[in-house]
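DM from R.C. (forwarded with permission)

"hey, sorry to bug you on a friday — could you get me a structure for this? deadline for the figure draft is monday and I only need the backbone to look sensible"
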Amino acid sequence: MSTPVTDSSNKLGWLLEDLSIPGVRFSVLLSEDGLRIAHSNGVSKDDAERFAAAASGLRSLGKALGEFCGGSDNGVRQNMTEYDQGMILITAAGEGALLGVSTTTDIDVGLVAHRMNELASRVGRELGSQPRRRPDGSETP
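My reply, with the result:
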Protein backbone atom coordinates (compact mmCIF):
# COMPACT_ATOMS: atom_id res chain seq x y z
CA MET A 1 0.00 0.00 0.00
CA SER A 2 3.03 2.30 0.06
CA THR A 3 3.48 2.45 -3.73
CA PRO A 4 2.28 5.69 -5.33
CA VAL A 5 -0.87 5.53 -7.41
CA THR A 6 0.55 7.33 -10.41
CA ASP A 7 3.85 6.59 -12.10
CA SER A 8 4.50 9.12 -14.86
CA SER A 9 7.82 7.48 -15.72
CA ASN A 10 6.33 3.95 -15.87
CA LYS A 11 8.82 2.56 -13.33
CA LEU A 12 6.35 -0.21 -12.50
CA GLY A 13 6.02 -1.40 -16.12
CA TRP A 14 8.30 -4.36 -15.37
CA LEU A 15 5.52 -5.84 -13.22
CA LEU A 16 3.57 -6.57 -16.38
CA GLU A 17 6.28 -8.64 -18.10
CA ASP A 18 4.57 -11.90 -17.02
CA LEU A 19 1.79 -11.05 -19.44
CA SER A 20 4.12 -10.88 -22.45
CA ILE A 21 2.73 -14.02 -24.04
CA PRO A 22 1.60 -14.74 -27.61
CA GLY A 23 -1.62 -12.94 -28.44
CA VAL A 24 -1.36 -10.28 -25.73
CA ARG A 25 -1.05 -6.84 -27.32
CA PHE A 26 -0.44 -4.97 -24.06
CA SER A 27 -1.42 -4.72 -20.41
CA VAL A 28 -2.19 -1.81 -18.11
CA LEU A 29 -2.24 -1.58 -14.34
CA LEU A 30 -4.79 1.04 -13.32
CA SER A 31 -6.61 2.47 -10.35
CA GLU A 32 -10.27 1.58 -10.00
CA ASP A 33 -11.15 5.20 -10.79
CA GLY A 34 -9.35 5.05 -14.15
CA LEU A 35 -5.81 6.37 -13.61
CA ARG A 36 -2.91 4.56 -15.28
CA ILE A 37 -0.41 3.19 -12.77
CA ALA A 38 1.84 1.31 -15.22
CA HIS A 39 1.76 -0.09 -18.73
CA SER A 40 3.61 -2.71 -20.73
CA ASN A 41 5.49 -2.32 -23.97
CA GLY A 42 3.23 -2.25 -27.00
CA VAL A 43 1.12 0.71 -25.91
CA SER A 44 1.99 4.39 -25.63
CA LYS A 45 1.52 6.26 -22.37
CA ASP A 46 -1.34 8.29 -23.90
CA ASP A 47 -3.14 5.19 -25.16
CA ALA A 48 -2.55 3.43 -21.83
CA GLU A 49 -4.20 6.39 -20.08
CA ARG A 50 -7.19 6.23 -22.45
CA PHE A 51 -7.39 2.46 -21.95
CA ALA A 52 -7.31 2.92 -18.16
CA ALA A 53 -10.21 5.38 -18.25
CA ALA A 54 -12.29 3.13 -20.53
CA ALA A 55 -11.46 -0.04 -18.56
CA SER A 56 -12.61 1.65 -15.38
CA GLY A 57 -15.90 2.51 -17.06
CA LEU A 58 -16.33 -1.06 -18.29
CA ARG A 59 -15.67 -2.33 -14.76
CA SER A 60 -18.38 0.01 -13.43
CA LEU A 61 -20.86 -1.37 -15.95
CA GLY A 62 -19.98 -4.88 -14.81
CA LYS A 63 -20.76 -3.90 -11.22
CA ALA A 64 -24.12 -2.47 -12.30
CA LEU A 65 -25.03 -5.77 -13.98
CA GLY A 66 -23.98 -7.93 -11.01
CA GLU A 67 -27.45 -7.95 -9.48
CA PHE A 68 -28.69 -9.89 -12.51
CA CYS A 69 -26.30 -12.71 -11.63
CA GLY A 70 -27.45 -13.28 -8.10
CA GLY A 71 -28.02 -10.12 -6.09
CA SER A 72 -27.19 -6.47 -5.56
CA ASP A 73 -24.06 -7.28 -3.50
CA ASN A 74 -22.65 -9.57 -6.20
CA GLY A 75 -18.99 -8.61 -6.83
CA VAL A 76 -17.27 -8.58 -10.21
CA ARG A 77 -14.40 -11.05 -10.53
CA GLN A 78 -13.41 -10.45 -14.13
CA ASN A 79 -14.70 -8.60 -17.17
CA MET A 80 -14.23 -10.18 -20.60
CA THR A 81 -15.39 -8.41 -23.73
CA GLU A 82 -14.87 -9.99 -27.14
CA TYR A 83 -14.51 -7.88 -30.28
CA ASP A 84 -14.04 -8.81 -33.93
CA GLN A 85 -10.26 -8.35 -33.62
CA GLY A 86 -9.56 -9.40 -30.03
CA MET A 87 -10.57 -9.27 -26.40
CA ILE A 88 -10.33 -6.96 -23.39
CA LEU A 89 -9.94 -8.67 -20.01
CA ILE A 90 -10.05 -6.80 -16.70
CA THR A 91 -9.51 -8.24 -13.23
CA ALA A 92 -9.01 -6.86 -9.72
CA ALA A 93 -5.36 -6.46 -8.66
CA GLY A 94 -5.42 -5.39 -5.04
CA GLU A 95 -7.54 -2.91 -3.17
CA GLY A 96 -8.61 -0.20 -5.62
CA ALA A 97 -6.39 -1.48 -8.46
CA LEU A 98 -7.25 -3.29 -11.69
CA LEU A 99 -5.29 -5.13 -14.34
CA GLY A 100 -6.43 -4.77 -17.96
CA VAL A 101 -5.21 -6.69 -21.00
CA SER A 102 -5.80 -6.29 -24.73
CA THR A 103 -5.43 -9.40 -26.90
CA THR A 104 -5.62 -10.55 -30.49
CA THR A 105 -8.17 -13.16 -31.58
CA ASP A 106 -5.54 -15.91 -31.60
CA ILE A 107 -5.08 -16.49 -27.87
CA ASP A 108 -5.55 -19.10 -25.21
CA VAL A 109 -8.10 -17.26 -23.04
CA GLY A 110 -7.60 -19.69 -20.17
CA LEU A 111 -3.83 -19.11 -20.13
CA VAL A 112 -4.20 -15.32 -20.29
CA ALA A 113 -6.81 -15.31 -17.49
CA HIS A 114 -4.63 -17.62 -15.39
CA ARG A 115 -1.55 -15.40 -15.83
CA MET A 116 -3.63 -12.31 -15.05
CA ASN A 117 -4.94 -13.85 -11.84
CA GLU A 118 -1.44 -14.90 -10.76
CA LEU A 119 -0.07 -11.43 -11.43
CA ALA A 120 -3.05 -9.73 -9.80
CA SER A 121 -2.50 -11.81 -6.68
CA ARG A 122 1.18 -10.87 -6.54
CA VAL A 123 0.56 -7.21 -7.31
CA GLY A 124 -2.32 -7.07 -4.84
CA ARG A 125 -0.02 -7.99 -1.98
CA GLU A 126 2.44 -5.23 -2.83
CA LEU A 127 0.30 -2.54 -4.38
CA GLY A 128 -2.98 -1.04 -3.43
CA SER A 129 -4.43 2.01 -5.05
CA GLN A 130 -6.29 4.17 -2.55
CA PRO A 131 -9.28 6.22 -3.71
CA ARG A 132 -8.54 9.81 -4.66
CA ARG A 133 -9.48 12.34 -2.00
CA ARG A 134 -10.83 15.85 -2.25
CA PRO A 135 -9.06 18.70 -0.41
CA ASP A 136 -11.60 18.31 2.42
CA GLY A 137 -10.52 14.67 2.88
CA SER A 138 -13.65 13.02 1.45
CA GLU A 139 -13.38 10.37 -1.28
CA THR A 140 -14.19 11.22 -4.88
CA PRO A 141 -17.09 9.23 -6.32
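R.C.: lifesaver. The chain has a mean pLDDT of 85.
me: no worries. The longest strand covers residues 24-31.
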